[in-house]
Amino acid sequence: MTESQKVAVGIVGASGYGGVQLVKLLSEHPEVEIVYLGGDSSAGKDYADLYPHLGHLIQNKVEPIDLDVIASRCEVVFLGLPNGLACKFAPKLIERGCKVLDLSADYRFTSLETYTAWYQTERDDGAIASSAVYGLPELYREQIKNSSLIGCPGCYPTASLLALSPLIKQGLILPETIIIDAKSGTSGGGRQGKINLLLAEADNSLGAYGVAKHRHTPEIEQICSDLARSDVKVQFTPHLIPMVRGILSTVYATLRDPGLVREDLITIYNAFYRSSPFVKILPNGTYPQTKWACGTNLAYIGIEVDPRTGRIIVMSAIDNLIKGQAGQAVQCLNLIMGWDEDLGLPKLGFYP
Ligand SMILES: NC(=O)C1=CN([C@@H]2O[C@H](COP(=O)(O)OP(=O)(O)OC[C@H]3O[C@@H](n4cnc5c(N)ncnc54)[C@H](OP(=O)(O)O)[C@@H]3O)[C@@H](O)[C@H]2O)C=CC1
Ligand SMILES: CC(=O)N[C@@H](CCC(=O)OP(=O)(O)O)C(=O)O
């Protein structure tokens, strides 16, 4: 604890997009104090040089990543780093008594073989990894409360799993028919320069990528399989869309009972998410837009049934950087600390 009795938190990867969301959310959180901001190429710079619009509030410098220093200062550490780094840092932080919330894929997988096959990184932290909990509170709330290491889900898996979970958990669909068509804004690719994310490449254009091989496929399949208690394969196609933030994931599956109508499904979804403050099931015939979720930790879910094809179509909209990343990590922190799950998390964005 800090002198003010607030919980001391650090952000490693503070210069990135996940990092800057965390800086905003945690600065406004009533129970925490940011005591460390860390980076790699940005180390030594004033945070306000990286994000001048925050200069009036954040006077910290970005510090180099020194795990002893971080552990001596922080009770809780957020890792917002490229895949393959958290698994080097987290074990040492956990050993030194920190709670760790990782935004990358390193602690999302129950099988490290699967992780290595998709992320091409060998792992030697099996013992620590086996203690990690998948940080989707709507599914694993109780396990998160008792964990010190959270592998926060990716943005596409968050949107897609919130849409699919009630259907799979309650055996309402044929899992082999699941198709996920998802679109992400360019901030999903992070702040580091990439050609496909340039305005000149991404603007006025829409295209799929990673077709039949995106690394979020095994992550979604792992959770679907856990819910179904059997092996589930999904068809997942991500698209890059010319907007800054937001994900719309539209999922399709064949209903086991073709007699189910939209109203039945809405009732089922409302019951499934009755204790989940951030999931909003939309009424009959209302379909979500990413703009509604922008800047909030909400997931808006719209449901339709097509009696001609016997399929259900579920649309899920989130802010990829909040419910899909930093907000979700703060939601998990609230659970770990025994605070209200929605403490300090935005439920209303600005519109339009
Ligand atoms: N963007 C999104 O929508 C989502 C991203 N994620 C995941 O969250 C993590 C962070 O993503 P995002 O914030 O977008 O990434 P960014 O590219 O915006 O930021 C990456 C951060 O990692 C730091 N970093 C890069 N290389 C190293 C290194 N070798 N050693 C130490 N630090 C390093 C950078 O520091 P510096 O700038 O100082 O070099 C920077 O702070 C990733 O794993 C990503 O996959 C998860 C869900 C959604
Ligand atoms: C638009 C875009 O590039 N999006 C990223 C998703 C970011 C993310 O959630 O990835 P992690 O699993 O690493 O956390 C991608 O498709 O790789």
Question: Explain this structure to me?
Answer:
This protein has 2 domains: 7-131, Rossmann fold; 155-320, Dihydrodipicolinate Reductase, domain 2. 33% of the residues lie in helices and 19% in strands. The protein is built from 13 helices and 13 strands. It has helices spanning 17-27, 47-50, 67-73, 86-95, 112-119, 126-129, 137-145, 155-169, 199-202, 216-228, 262-272, 290-293, 322-337, and strands spanning 7-12, 32-38, 76-79, 99-102, 133-134, 149-151, 179-184, 207-208, 235-240, 247-254, 279-281, 299-306, 311-318. A 7-stranded mixed beta sheet has the order 8-9-7-10-13-12-11. Helix 4 (86-95) links the parallel strand 3 and strand 4 (99-102). It is globular and about 60 Å long. The site of NADPH dihydro-nicotinamide-adenine-dinucleotide phosphate (NDP) has 30 residues, from helix 1 and helix 13.
List the helices and strands and how they pair.
Layout: E1 7-12, H1 17-27, E2 32-38, H2 47-50, H3 67-73, E3 76-79, H4 86-95, E4 99-102, H5 112-119, H6 126-129, E5 133-134, H7 137-145, E6 149-151, H8 155-169, E7 179-184, H9 199-202, E8 207-208, H10 216-228, E9 235-240, E10 247-254, H11 262-272, E11 279-281, H12 290-293, E12 299-306, E13 311-318, H13 322-337
Parallel strand pairs: 1-2, 1-3, 3-4, 4-6, 5-6, 7-9, 11-12
Antiparallel strand pairs: 7-10, 8-9, 10-13, 12-13
Helix pairs in contact: 1-13, 7-13, 8-10
The protein binds NADPH dihydro-nicotinamide-adenine-dinucleotide phosphate (NDP) and N-acetyl-L-glutamyl 5-phosphate (X2W).
